[in-house]
UniProtKB/TrEMBL annotation:
Claim: Membrane is one of the keywords in the record: no
Protein name: DJ-1 family protein
One Pfam family from the record: DJ-1_PfpI
Lineage: Bacteria, Pseudomonadati, Pseudomonadota, Gammaproteobacteria, Aeromonadales
Gene3D superfamilies assigned to the protein according to its UniProt record, in alphabetical order: 3.40.50.880
InterPro entries with a match to the protein in the record: Class_I_gatase-like, DJ-1, DJ-1/PfpI, Prot/Nucl_acid_deglycase
Domain DJ-1/PfpI: start-end pairs: 1-168
Organism, scientific name: Aeromonas sobria
Cellular component annotations (GO), alphabetically ordered: cytoplasm
Keywords in alphabetical order: Repeat
Amino acid sequence: MSVLVLVAPGSEEIETVAIVDTLVRARIEVLLASCCPAGLRQIRASRGVQLVADCHIDELTGRDFEAIVVPGGLPGSEVIRDTPLAIDLLKEQAALGRWRAAICAAPVVVLQHHGLLDGAIVTCHPGFQPQLPASLLSRERVVTDEAHRLITSQGPGSAIEFALELVRVLRGDEVATAVAGPMVLP
């Protein structure tokens, strides 16, 4: 099994690359799938960086993922929100009790928009926090809701912590610590 990371024109590049890189360091197979409406694998991220996905979401041959991760950024989160296959995959992942993760704008723009928070305690970029019900909002940098198999985080500055938390839930504390060490984190 592998981890599916969704990307779209306008996705946040620091978040996208930090997620993919950290998971690869943990020897987790990562599939970066473009949700570009034009069917392209290459996308221009939110700050103009060009990223090339492994495949377009329409080319996926399987649906069996340990986790599905949604980076933030605008308009990237909106493009993913408006990609029916991406939402179908996220809904199926939740129904199967498998991990989902979203950072920055994505918890609100993608997951909440489609009713995919399911009462989980979450965080998101501070600019989107007023859109979450106070009863579900945490102001922590990274939040793991084990019961809902959902990890959320605030933004580019918390992207490595977010990705390491994903490593921890998928591969355990020892692997997460081993990956974090050479990254010279505080």
